[in-house]
């Protein structure tokens, strides 16, 4: 049976709407009283798993789901062995370097060598500063990264920015963009190649519904 | 100024009550309308940071907070360079191996070699199975680990158990305990040694209020 891994949080509603448009109804996950992590489409032909956004690529990589929706930011950070098949166009944001507005820094290269950069995106941040040939210490945080510069623990942060409201509220400004992100449809590579459970038809239908292909 | 890092989530209320009993009032964090991540004690002599449970040791290790409250499970998993100064006695739980009740496994050593074990506690799980000389593949998940065996992705999980309700609801049973956990008071090693901001007196007062020392 076709199984789709769906991410909890901000991408969920758009993901479910898109799948509904191609005949897969997992809207039961949008019911606030729902406690199930696994549901069947009413037609009984497909199943969905509701998992943390960082876990979607894990379920798809291990083949427990043939399809999944994940942010490009998560895919860049975790580098899972999955096929990225479509840019779904929603969930747009960017991974950016930000500093305190009161700081003297306006470009990444202004940051002091061996300074500290707090981030949830440790891999992406490390890769970025290595490419700039700027040695910094990445401080791994799991949330509220904006506290890094506020408390003086780090000179800068690397974090996702969508509206910019959180930065503004915390007196931070965006300096440079590492990359733009959006939701991607991912597939288990072998299922994709072998067209298991007719996933290629599903992907084609979803492609029709979206505008931008990767 | 003395800064204390407090964990969001299940340890917060007990942490705040304990600090109140030694004259540090951070109860503003318990107000559901509070959005601040940083507050002062009403006497203006101490500050608290409200951060994710996994980030408490980071703030303490980097010296942005001299004291913090963290679960022993987090300390075992992340191995931060902090001083563990007190067992606070609350937040009791255990890190355990669990499997589907319908599985043939009843001890960790029954698990098949090269089987899969899903966990948020990748480091602890790896260390445990290495000690057993049982080669398994650890599947890193960030939440809802119980889905691992349910979907067939893993034979077992290593996860925190407190009441056992989540396991039961998902048809899983606890096989073996890796270790017992509870909330710990941690300190920045240098601040502790130099008694910065009189933290040794604070620790002594907190010790008086708790029963078990580490």
UniProtKB/TrEMBL annotation, chains A, B:
Protein name: ATP phosphoribosyltransferase
Enzyme Commission code(s) on record: 2.4.2.17
Predominant place of localization: cytoplasm
Signal peptide: none
KW Membrane (keyword) present: no
Biological function: Catalyzes the condensation of ATP and 5-phosphoribose 1-diphosphate to form N'-(5'-phosphoribosyl)-ATP (PR-ATP). Has a crucial role in the pathway because the rate of histidine biosynthesis seems to be controlled primarily by regulation of HisG enzymatic activity.
HAMAP family noted in UniProt: HisG_Short
Pathway(s) this gene product operates in, as recorded in its UniProt entry: Amino-acid biosynthesis; L-histidine biosynthesis; L-histidine from 5-phospho-alpha-D-ribose 1-diphosphate: step 1/9
Molecular function terms, GO-annotated: ATP phosphoribosyltransferase activity
Source organism of the structure: Laspinema olomoucense D3b
UniProt domain ATP phosphoribosyltransferase catalytic: residue ranges: 52-203
InterPro entries noted in UniProt: ATP_PRibTrfase_cat, ATP_PRibTrfase_CS, ATP_PRibTrfase_HisG, ATP_PRibTrfase_HisG_short
Family the entry assigns: Belongs to the ATP phosphoribosyltransferase family. Short subfamily.
Compartments, record wording: Cytoplasm
Entry remark concerning the domains of this protein: Lacks the C-terminal regulatory region which is replaced by HisZ.
Keyword terms, alphabetized: Amino-acid biosynthesis, ATP-binding, Cytoplasm, Glycosyltransferase, Histidine biosynthesis, Nucleotide-binding, Transferase
Broad enzyme group: transferase
Subunit structure: Heteromultimer composed of HisG and HisZ subunits.
Pfam families: HisG
Reaction catalyzed: 1-(5-phospho-beta-D-ribosyl)-ATP + diphosphate = 5-phospho-alpha-D-ribose 1-diphosphate + ATP
